[in-house]
Amino acid sequence: MSNDLTLLEKFQIFRQRYFPERQLFLRSEGRVRFVTIGSYTQMVAATALSSALIWGSVTSYHYLTRDQVLEAKNRTITTMSAQYESLSNDFSALEMEVERKAEQLETRQQFLEEVVGVEKASTAAPAQDDAEEIAAQNPERTSFNSDSKPGFFAEILGAGTAQAAILSNNDRRKNLLSRLQQMEARQQQLANALLSEAEAKIANIDRILEPTKLDNDTLIEKAEALVRKVGNQYDASQADFQPVFQDNDQETFLRLTNSRQRLEMVTLVLNSFPVGKPAEDFYLSERFGYRIHPVKKTPDNHNGVDLAGWPGTAIYATAQGKVVRAGNIWPYGNMVEIDHGNGFKTRYGHMRKLRVSKGETVTMGQRIGDMGKTGRVTGTHLHYEVWFDGQVRDPMPFMKAANDVLEIQGRNEETSQQ
Protein backbone atom coordinates (compact mmCIF):
# COMPACT_ATOMS: atom_id res chain seq x y z
CA MET A 1 0.00 0.00 0.00
CA SER A 2 2.89 2.28 0.91
CA ASN A 3 4.44 1.60 -2.54
CA ASP A 4 1.17 2.61 -4.31
CA LEU A 5 1.07 5.84 -2.35
CA THR A 6 4.62 6.52 -3.23
CA LEU A 7 3.95 6.08 -6.94
CA LEU A 8 0.86 8.23 -6.64
CA GLU A 9 2.84 10.88 -4.89
CA LYS A 10 5.46 10.74 -7.63
CA PHE A 11 2.75 11.07 -10.25
CA GLN A 12 1.22 14.03 -8.46
CA ILE A 13 4.63 15.71 -8.28
CA PHE A 14 5.20 15.07 -12.01
CA ARG A 15 1.70 16.42 -12.78
CA GLN A 16 2.09 19.54 -10.64
CA ARG A 17 5.55 20.22 -12.09
CA TYR A 18 4.88 19.78 -15.81
CA PHE A 19 1.13 20.13 -16.10
CA PRO A 20 -0.01 22.64 -13.38
CA GLU A 21 -3.50 24.07 -13.64
CA ARG A 22 -3.41 27.00 -16.00
CA GLN A 23 -5.81 29.89 -16.65
CA LEU A 24 -6.25 31.70 -19.88
CA PHE A 25 -7.45 35.34 -19.63
CA LEU A 26 -9.62 36.56 -22.50
CA ARG A 27 -10.49 40.26 -22.85
CA SER A 28 -13.22 41.37 -25.24
CA GLU A 29 -15.16 44.66 -25.38
CA GLY A 30 -13.89 45.74 -21.98
CA ARG A 31 -14.88 42.53 -20.38
CA VAL A 32 -12.38 40.04 -18.98
CA ARG A 33 -12.98 36.32 -18.91
CA PHE A 34 -10.73 33.46 -18.01
CA VAL A 35 -10.68 29.78 -18.88
CA THR A 36 -9.19 27.24 -16.54
CA ILE A 37 -7.31 24.30 -18.12
CA GLY A 38 -6.82 21.42 -15.80
CA SER A 39 -3.68 19.33 -15.60
CA TYR A 40 -5.44 16.20 -16.84
CA THR A 41 -6.73 18.05 -19.87
CA GLN A 42 -3.21 19.22 -20.61
CA MET A 43 -1.84 15.67 -20.31
CA VAL A 44 -4.46 14.33 -22.72
CA ALA A 45 -3.74 17.13 -25.19
CA ALA A 46 0.04 16.55 -24.88
CA THR A 47 -0.42 12.82 -25.42
CA ALA A 48 -2.58 13.41 -28.52
CA LEU A 49 -0.10 15.95 -29.90
CA SER A 50 2.84 13.57 -29.31
CA SER A 51 1.02 10.72 -31.02
CA ALA A 52 0.23 12.95 -33.98
CA LEU A 53 3.85 14.02 -34.24
CA ILE A 54 5.10 10.43 -34.07
CA TRP A 55 2.56 9.23 -36.66
CA GLY A 56 3.47 12.15 -38.95
CA SER A 57 7.19 11.42 -38.60
CA VAL A 58 6.77 7.71 -39.39
CA THR A 59 4.50 8.48 -42.33
CA SER A 60 6.90 11.06 -43.69
CA TYR A 61 9.85 8.66 -43.34
CA HIS A 62 8.08 5.89 -45.24
CA TYR A 63 6.96 8.34 -47.88
CA LEU A 64 10.47 9.71 -48.31
CA THR A 65 12.06 6.22 -48.44
CA ARG A 66 9.38 4.65 -50.67
CA ASP A 67 11.31 5.34 -53.91
CA GLN A 68 14.42 3.73 -52.48
CA VAL A 69 12.43 0.61 -51.52
CA LEU A 70 10.81 0.44 -54.93
CA GLU A 71 14.17 0.90 -56.62
CA ALA A 72 15.66 -1.91 -54.53
CA LYS A 73 12.74 -4.17 -55.45
CA ASN A 74 13.17 -3.27 -59.12
CA ARG A 75 16.88 -4.10 -58.89
CA THR A 76 16.00 -7.44 -57.33
CA ILE A 77 13.44 -8.16 -60.06
CA THR A 78 15.92 -7.14 -62.76
CA THR A 79 18.60 -9.39 -61.27
CA MET A 80 16.21 -12.32 -61.06
CA SER A 81 15.05 -11.72 -64.64
CA ALA A 82 18.65 -11.64 -65.87
CA GLN A 83 19.40 -14.86 -64.02
CA TYR A 84 16.27 -16.45 -65.44
CA GLU A 85 17.12 -15.29 -68.97
CA SER A 86 20.68 -16.58 -68.61
CA LEU A 87 19.36 -19.92 -67.39
CA SER A 88 16.86 -20.00 -70.23
CA ASN A 89 19.57 -19.23 -72.79
CA ASP A 90 21.79 -21.95 -71.35
CA PHE A 91 18.90 -24.37 -71.57
CA SER A 92 18.11 -23.35 -75.16
CA ALA A 93 21.76 -23.74 -76.14
CA LEU A 94 21.86 -27.17 -74.53
CA GLU A 95 18.63 -28.16 -76.30
CA MET A 96 20.06 -27.06 -79.67
CA GLU A 97 23.22 -29.03 -78.94
CA VAL A 98 21.16 -32.14 -78.16
CA GLU A 99 19.25 -31.69 -81.42
CA ARG A 100 22.42 -31.24 -83.49
CA LYS A 101 24.14 -34.25 -82.00
CA ALA A 102 21.01 -36.39 -82.35
CA GLU A 103 20.65 -35.47 -86.05
CA GLN A 104 24.32 -36.28 -86.74
CA LEU A 105 23.99 -39.61 -84.93
CA GLU A 106 20.88 -40.45 -86.92
CA THR A 107 22.78 -39.73 -90.16
CA ARG A 108 25.53 -42.08 -89.02
CA GLN A 109 23.01 -44.73 -87.97
CA GLN A 110 21.31 -44.67 -91.37
CA PHE A 111 24.71 -44.96 -93.05
CA LEU A 112 25.69 -47.95 -90.90
CA GLU A 113 22.39 -49.67 -91.65
CA GLU A 114 22.98 -49.07 -95.36
CA VAL A 115 26.47 -50.56 -95.16
CA VAL A 116 25.29 -53.79 -93.59
CA GLY A 117 22.57 -53.95 -96.25
CA VAL A 118 19.41 -54.05 -94.14
CA GLU A 119 16.92 -51.40 -93.11
CA LYS A 120 17.73 -51.85 -89.44
CA ALA A 121 21.00 -53.69 -88.99
CA SER A 122 20.93 -56.37 -86.35
CA THR A 123 24.52 -55.54 -85.42
CA ALA A 124 23.45 -51.98 -84.72
CA ALA A 125 20.65 -53.05 -82.37
CA PRO A 126 22.38 -51.74 -79.21
CA ALA A 127 22.62 -48.30 -80.77
CA GLN A 128 18.99 -48.51 -81.85
CA ASP A 129 17.97 -49.45 -78.33
CA ASP A 130 19.69 -46.33 -77.06
CA ALA A 131 17.88 -44.24 -79.65
CA GLU A 132 14.50 -45.68 -78.64
CA GLU A 133 15.23 -45.11 -74.97
CA ILE A 134 16.22 -41.52 -75.67
CA ALA A 135 12.99 -40.99 -77.60
CA ALA A 136 11.02 -42.42 -74.68
CA GLN A 137 12.68 -39.98 -72.28
CA ASN A 138 12.04 -37.11 -74.69
CA PRO A 139 8.36 -37.44 -75.66
CA GLU A 140 8.13 -34.01 -77.28
CA ARG A 141 10.59 -35.26 -79.90
CA THR A 142 9.25 -38.48 -81.38
CA SER A 143 12.05 -38.76 -83.94
CA PHE A 144 15.46 -37.20 -84.33
CA ASN A 145 14.55 -35.37 -87.52
CA SER A 146 11.01 -34.34 -86.64
CA ASP A 147 9.99 -31.09 -88.30
CA SER A 148 7.27 -30.43 -85.73
CA LYS A 149 8.53 -29.96 -82.17
CA PRO A 150 6.55 -27.89 -79.59
CA GLY A 151 8.48 -25.15 -77.82
CA PHE A 152 10.15 -26.30 -74.66
CA PHE A 153 9.36 -23.08 -72.77
CA ALA A 154 5.63 -23.59 -73.42
CA GLU A 155 5.89 -26.96 -71.74
CA ILE A 156 8.02 -25.53 -68.93
CA LEU A 157 5.67 -22.65 -68.11
CA GLY A 158 2.77 -25.05 -67.96
CA ALA A 159 4.02 -27.04 -64.98
CA GLY A 160 5.27 -25.64 -61.68
CA THR A 161 7.64 -22.69 -61.40
CA ALA A 162 9.48 -21.83 -64.60
CA GLN A 163 12.92 -21.88 -63.03
CA ALA A 164 12.36 -25.26 -61.36
CA ALA A 165 11.01 -26.68 -64.63
CA ILE A 166 14.02 -25.43 -66.56
CA LEU A 167 16.39 -26.91 -64.03
CA SER A 168 14.53 -30.21 -64.22
CA ASN A 169 14.55 -30.25 -68.03
CA ASN A 170 18.13 -29.03 -68.12
CA ASP A 171 19.19 -32.02 -66.05
CA ARG A 172 17.17 -34.25 -68.37
CA ARG A 173 18.91 -32.84 -71.44
CA LYS A 174 22.29 -33.42 -69.82
CA ASN A 175 21.25 -37.01 -69.23
CA LEU A 176 20.22 -37.28 -72.89
CA LEU A 177 23.61 -35.93 -73.96
CA SER A 178 25.21 -38.64 -71.87
CA ARG A 179 23.05 -41.29 -73.56
CA LEU A 180 23.83 -39.85 -76.99
CA GLN A 181 27.51 -40.10 -76.15
CA GLN A 182 27.06 -43.78 -75.32
CA MET A 183 25.22 -44.24 -78.61
CA GLU A 184 28.07 -42.54 -80.48
CA ALA A 185 30.58 -44.87 -78.82
CA ARG A 186 28.58 -47.92 -79.97
CA GLN A 187 28.39 -46.53 -83.49
CA GLN A 188 32.15 -45.99 -83.47
CA GLN A 189 32.63 -49.61 -82.43
CA LEU A 190 30.39 -50.84 -85.25
CA ALA A 191 31.98 -48.49 -87.79
CA ASN A 192 35.46 -49.72 -86.87
CA ALA A 193 34.34 -53.33 -87.30
CA LEU A 194 32.79 -52.56 -90.70
CA LEU A 195 35.90 -50.62 -91.73
CA SER A 196 38.14 -53.56 -90.84
CA GLU A 197 35.86 -55.86 -92.81
CA ALA A 198 35.85 -53.58 -95.87
CA GLU A 199 39.62 -53.17 -95.81
CA ALA A 200 40.04 -56.92 -95.45
CA LYS A 201 37.80 -57.47 -98.49
CA ILE A 202 39.81 -54.97 -100.53
CA ALA A 203 43.06 -56.66 -99.50
CA ASN A 204 41.57 -60.06 -100.35
CA ILE A 205 40.58 -58.85 -103.83
CA ASP A 206 44.13 -57.65 -104.42
CA ARG A 207 45.40 -61.07 -103.37
CA ILE A 208 42.96 -62.91 -105.66
CA LEU A 209 43.68 -60.68 -108.65
CA GLU A 210 47.46 -60.62 -108.25
CA PRO A 211 48.08 -63.58 -110.64
CA THR A 212 45.93 -61.87 -113.31
CA LYS A 213 48.15 -58.74 -113.17
CA LEU A 214 45.10 -56.74 -112.14
CA ASP A 215 44.61 -54.86 -108.87
CA ASN A 216 42.09 -52.63 -107.13
CA ASP A 217 43.66 -49.39 -108.32
CA THR A 218 43.55 -50.56 -111.95
CA LEU A 219 39.90 -51.55 -111.70
CA ILE A 220 38.98 -48.28 -109.95
CA GLU A 221 40.73 -46.26 -112.64
CA LYS A 222 38.79 -48.21 -115.25
CA ALA A 223 35.49 -47.56 -113.47
CA GLU A 224 36.21 -43.85 -113.17
CA ALA A 225 37.21 -43.65 -116.84
CA LEU A 226 33.99 -45.37 -117.93
CA VAL A 227 31.90 -43.05 -115.77
CA ARG A 228 33.67 -39.97 -117.10
CA LYS A 229 33.06 -41.24 -120.61
CA VAL A 230 29.31 -41.02 -120.12
CA GLY A 231 29.61 -37.62 -118.47
CA ASN A 232 28.69 -38.58 -114.92
CA GLN A 233 30.53 -38.70 -111.66
CA TYR A 234 30.58 -41.84 -109.59
CA ASP A 235 28.47 -41.38 -106.48
CA ALA A 236 28.73 -43.78 -103.57
CA SER A 237 26.29 -41.71 -101.48
CA GLN A 238 29.02 -40.37 -99.25
CA ALA A 239 27.39 -38.60 -96.31
CA ASP A 240 28.59 -35.24 -95.07
CA PHE A 241 29.68 -36.43 -91.64
CA GLN A 242 30.42 -33.77 -89.02
CA PRO A 243 32.08 -34.08 -85.58
CA VAL A 244 29.67 -34.85 -82.77
CA PHE A 245 31.53 -35.03 -79.46
CA GLN A 246 35.18 -34.79 -80.56
CA ASP A 247 36.88 -32.84 -83.33
CA ASN A 248 37.84 -35.95 -85.31
CA ASP A 249 35.22 -38.52 -84.32
CA GLN A 250 33.90 -38.52 -87.91
CA GLU A 251 37.20 -39.84 -89.34
CA THR A 252 36.21 -43.50 -88.98
CA PHE A 253 32.99 -42.88 -90.91
CA LEU A 254 34.80 -40.97 -93.66
CA ARG A 255 37.33 -43.80 -93.99
CA LEU A 256 34.51 -46.35 -94.04
CA THR A 257 32.74 -44.36 -96.76
CA ASN A 258 35.92 -44.21 -98.84
CA SER A 259 36.61 -47.94 -98.42
CA ARG A 260 33.00 -48.75 -99.25
CA GLN A 261 33.16 -46.62 -102.38
CA ARG A 262 36.36 -48.33 -103.51
CA LEU A 263 34.83 -51.75 -102.85
CA GLU A 264 31.69 -50.87 -104.82
CA MET A 265 33.70 -49.60 -107.79
CA VAL A 266 35.90 -52.71 -107.84
CA THR A 267 32.87 -54.98 -107.57
CA LEU A 268 31.18 -53.05 -110.36
CA VAL A 269 34.05 -53.78 -112.74
CA LEU A 270 34.42 -57.36 -111.53
CA ASN A 271 30.81 -58.04 -112.53
CA SER A 272 32.21 -58.38 -116.06
CA PHE A 273 35.05 -60.69 -115.01
CA PRO A 274 34.96 -63.98 -117.01
CA VAL A 275 34.19 -66.62 -114.40
CA GLY A 276 32.62 -69.47 -116.36
CA LYS A 277 34.23 -72.60 -117.86
CA PRO A 278 34.88 -72.05 -121.59
CA ALA A 279 34.39 -75.73 -122.44
CA GLU A 280 32.58 -78.67 -120.96
CA ASP A 281 35.44 -81.20 -121.11
CA PHE A 282 39.03 -80.29 -121.97
CA TYR A 283 42.67 -80.53 -121.07
CA LEU A 284 45.30 -77.82 -121.39
CA SER A 285 47.34 -78.46 -124.54
CA GLU A 286 49.11 -75.09 -124.94
CA ARG A 287 49.83 -72.32 -122.46
CA PHE A 288 49.87 -68.55 -122.84
CA GLY A 289 53.06 -66.72 -123.81
CA TYR A 290 56.27 -67.44 -125.72
CA ARG A 291 56.39 -70.72 -127.71
CA ILE A 292 57.51 -72.34 -130.95
CA HIS A 293 54.57 -72.18 -133.33
CA PRO A 294 53.37 -75.75 -134.06
CA VAL A 295 52.71 -74.99 -137.77
CA LYS A 296 55.29 -72.34 -138.70
CA LYS A 297 57.98 -73.80 -136.40
CA THR A 298 59.12 -70.27 -135.51
CA PRO A 299 59.18 -68.35 -132.19
CA ASP A 300 55.76 -66.92 -131.47
CA ASN A 301 53.69 -65.26 -128.71
CA HIS A 302 50.64 -67.31 -127.96
CA ASN A 303 47.85 -64.87 -126.97
CA GLY A 304 45.65 -67.44 -125.28
CA VAL A 305 45.45 -70.99 -124.06
CA ASP A 306 44.56 -74.07 -126.09
CA LEU A 307 41.99 -76.36 -124.50
CA ALA A 308 41.86 -79.70 -126.29
CA GLY A 309 38.85 -82.00 -126.34
CA TRP A 310 36.60 -84.14 -128.51
CA PRO A 311 35.19 -82.65 -131.74
CA GLY A 312 31.80 -81.07 -131.03
CA THR A 313 32.50 -80.44 -127.35
CA ALA A 314 30.24 -77.61 -126.14
CA ILE A 315 31.85 -74.15 -125.91
CA TYR A 316 30.32 -71.69 -123.43
CA ALA A 317 30.44 -67.93 -122.85
CA THR A 318 32.41 -67.29 -119.67
CA ALA A 319 30.46 -64.15 -118.77
CA GLN A 320 27.42 -62.21 -119.90
CA GLY A 321 28.05 -59.89 -122.82
CA LYS A 322 27.41 -58.90 -126.42
CA VAL A 323 28.80 -60.73 -129.43
CA VAL A 324 30.88 -58.18 -131.34
CA ARG A 325 32.44 -60.59 -133.87
CA ALA A 326 31.26 -63.97 -135.13
CA GLY A 327 32.44 -65.77 -138.25
CA ASN A 328 35.42 -67.23 -140.03
CA ILE A 329 38.30 -64.90 -139.12
CA TRP A 330 41.87 -65.88 -140.01
CA PRO A 331 43.82 -67.39 -138.29
CA TYR A 332 41.13 -68.20 -135.67
CA GLY A 333 38.87 -70.01 -138.08
CA ASN A 334 35.33 -69.94 -136.79
CA MET A 335 35.65 -67.41 -133.99
CA VAL A 336 33.36 -65.56 -131.56
CA GLU A 337 34.41 -62.40 -129.68
CA ILE A 338 32.27 -61.24 -126.75
CA ASP A 339 32.42 -57.81 -125.10
CA HIS A 340 31.54 -58.24 -121.42
CA GLY A 341 31.78 -54.56 -120.55
CA ASN A 342 34.07 -52.69 -118.15
CA GLY A 343 37.04 -53.44 -120.42
CA PHE A 344 36.71 -57.26 -120.44
CA LYS A 345 36.52 -59.26 -123.69
CA THR A 346 36.95 -62.94 -124.54
CA ARG A 347 37.67 -64.76 -127.83
CA TYR A 348 36.85 -68.36 -128.76
CA GLY A 349 38.61 -69.74 -131.88
CA HIS A 350 38.87 -72.78 -134.14
CA MET A 351 35.27 -73.87 -133.51
CA ARG A 352 33.59 -76.32 -135.84
CA LYS A 353 30.19 -74.64 -135.54
CA LEU A 354 28.98 -71.26 -134.29
CA ARG A 355 25.67 -71.06 -132.38
CA VAL A 356 25.48 -67.24 -131.98
CA SER A 357 25.73 -64.30 -134.35
CA LYS A 358 27.11 -60.76 -134.20
CA GLY A 359 25.01 -58.35 -132.11
CA GLU A 360 23.45 -61.09 -130.01
CA THR A 361 23.45 -60.81 -126.23
CA VAL A 362 24.59 -63.91 -124.40
CA THR A 363 24.53 -65.00 -120.77
CA MET A 364 27.23 -66.75 -118.77
CA GLY A 365 27.20 -70.46 -119.54
CA GLN A 366 25.28 -70.06 -122.80
CA ARG A 367 26.51 -72.40 -125.54
CA ILE A 368 28.08 -70.33 -128.31
CA GLY A 369 29.65 -73.09 -130.48
CA ASP A 370 31.20 -76.51 -130.85
CA MET A 371 34.88 -77.41 -130.53
CA GLY A 372 36.64 -78.02 -133.84
CA LYS A 373 39.85 -77.42 -135.79
CA THR A 374 39.09 -74.60 -138.24
CA GLY A 375 41.74 -72.00 -139.08
CA ARG A 376 45.49 -72.54 -138.60
CA VAL A 377 45.57 -75.55 -136.28
CA THR A 378 47.10 -79.01 -135.95
CA GLY A 379 44.27 -80.64 -134.00
CA THR A 380 40.88 -80.23 -132.39
CA HIS A 381 40.92 -77.66 -129.60
CA LEU A 382 39.50 -74.33 -128.39
CA HIS A 383 41.75 -71.30 -128.54
CA TYR A 384 40.60 -69.11 -125.62
CA GLU A 385 41.73 -65.50 -125.04
CA VAL A 386 40.99 -62.97 -122.29
CA TRP A 387 41.41 -59.23 -122.89
CA PHE A 388 41.23 -56.33 -120.46
CA ASP A 389 41.38 -52.67 -121.40
CA GLY A 390 42.76 -53.48 -124.85
CA GLN A 391 45.52 -55.80 -123.64
CA VAL A 392 45.58 -59.58 -123.90
CA ARG A 393 45.98 -61.45 -120.61
CA ASP A 394 46.88 -65.00 -119.60
CA PRO A 395 43.50 -66.78 -119.24
CA MET A 396 44.73 -69.37 -116.73
CA PRO A 397 44.92 -67.00 -113.70
CA PHE A 398 41.42 -65.77 -114.62
CA MET A 399 40.13 -69.32 -114.72
CA LYS A 400 41.77 -70.13 -111.38
CA ALA A 401 40.37 -66.98 -109.75
CA ALA A 402 36.85 -67.62 -111.09
CA ASN A 403 35.37 -69.16 -107.93
CA ASP A 404 36.79 -66.43 -105.70
CA VAL A 405 35.48 -63.71 -108.03
CA LEU A 406 32.05 -65.38 -108.03
CA GLU A 407 32.08 -65.08 -104.25
CA ILE A 408 33.05 -61.41 -104.50
CA GLN A 409 30.16 -60.92 -106.91
CA GLY A 410 27.86 -62.65 -104.43
CA ARG A 411 27.14 -65.41 -106.96
CA ASN A 412 29.19 -68.18 -105.39
CA GLU A 413 26.09 -70.37 -105.12
CA GLU A 414 25.65 -70.34 -108.90
CA THR A 415 27.09 -73.11 -111.01
CA SER A 416 29.51 -72.27 -113.77
CA GLN A 417 26.90 -73.41 -116.28
CA GLN A 418 23.45 -71.85 -116.51
Characterise the protein shown here.
By secondary structure, the protein is α+β, with helices and mostly antiparallel strands. The chain has three domains: 2-39, no CATH class; 54-270, no CATH class; 283-408, Glucose Permease (Domain IIA) (Distorted Sandwich). Helices cover 50% and strands 19% of the residues. It contains nine helices and 14 strands. Strands 3, 6, 7, 8, 9, 10, 11, 12, 13 and 14 form a ten-stranded antiparallel β-sheet that branches. The chain has a two-stranded antiparallel ribbon with strand order 1-2. Helix 6 (216-229) crosses helix 7 (251-270). The protein is rod-shaped, with a radius of gyration of 51 Å. The model is unreliable at 118-167 (pLDDT under 50).
Helix content: 40-55%
Provide mean pLDDT, rounded. 78
**Poorly predicted ranges:** 118-167
Structural class: alpha+beta
What is the molecular shape?
A: rod-shaped
Task: Tell me the β content.
Answer: 15-25%
**CA-to-CA gap between the ends?**
139 Å
Helix and strand pattern: HEEHHHHHHEEEEEEEEEEEEHH
What is the alpha-carbon Rg in Å? 51 Å
Count, helices: 9
Q: Structurally, how many domains make up the residues?
A: 3
Number of strands: 14
For the biggest sheet, the summary is: 10 strands, antiparallel
Domain M23ase beta-sheet core: 301-395
Protein name: Murein DD-endopeptidase MepM and murein hydrolase activator NlpD, contain LysM domain
InterPro entries: Cell_wall_metabolism_enzyme, Dup_hybrid_motif, M23ase_b-sheet_dom
Coiled coil: 84-115
